[in-house]
Specification:
By secondary structure, the chain is mainly alpha-helical. It has 7 helices and 2 strands. It has a domain of about 80 residues: Arc Repressor Mutant, subunit A, CATH 1.10.10.
Length: about 150
C-alpha cells in the first residue's frame, strides 16, 4: 500500500479527518455486508447481545450497553422491535429476549459476515499495530475530555 504523503507530511495531518474517514469507510463496509442478509448494524448488535447472554437480555439491558454506539443514540426500540417483528427474537415471561430458530440461523450467517469483514479491515495490520492505534485514539479521546466506551 502506498501512503498519501511522506512520513514528515503525515505526522502533520489532522487526526480528526483521518479518524472520521476511517470510521466512515469501516462502518459503511460493515453495514453493506450486514445489509446483504437484511440486517442493520443496530439489529446485529441486538442479536449479538442475545448471543453473548444465554439467559437472555431485556430491552433495558440491551439499550444500556448499546446507547452510546455510533450514531444510534438511545432510541434502539425500533431496531429491537424489528428483530421481534421478523421473528428473530422472542421474549420470555420475564421480558428477556431469546433467539428463535430463524434468529439463531441468521445470527450465525451474520457472524460469519462480521468475521470476514474484520479480516478484510485488519488485512496487513498486526495485532500490535491495532493495539497501538486503539490506545492512541483512547488517549486522544481522554486528552480532549471526550467519552468513549465499547463493550
Amino acid at each position: 500500500m502506498e501512503f498519501s504523503h511522506s512520513d514528515e507530511e503525515l505526522v502533520k495531518q489532522p487526526i480528526g479527518y483521518w479518524s472520521w474517514a476511517a470510521s466512515q469507510a469501516v462502518v459503511t463496509y460493515i453495514r453493506a455486508g450486514l445489509s446483504g442478509v437484511g440486517l442493520t448494524q443496530p439489529q446485529w448488535w441486538t442479536l449479538h447481545q442475545v448471543a453473548e447472554h444465554p439467559a437472555g437480555r431485556t430491552r433495558e439491558q440491551i439499550t444500556a450497553v448499546l446507547k452510546g454506539y455510533l450514531d444510534v443514540g438511545a432510541d434502539l426500540e425500533p431496531e429491537i422491535d424489528a428483530t421481534l417483528e421478523r421473528g428473530l427474537l422472542e421474549p420470555d415471561e420475564d421480558g428477556r429476549l431469546h433467539f428463535t430458530e430463524a434468529g439463531e440461523a441468521l445470527y450465525a450467517q451474520a457472524a460469519e459476515i462480521q468475521r470476514a469483514s474484520r479480516e478484510t479491515v485488519h488485512e496487513g495490520i498486526t495485532d500490535a499495530e491495532f493495539l497501538t492505534t486503539v490506545k492512541v485514539l483512547q488517549r486522544m479521546i481522554h486528552n480532549t475530555g471526550g467519552e468513549a466506551w465499547h463493550h
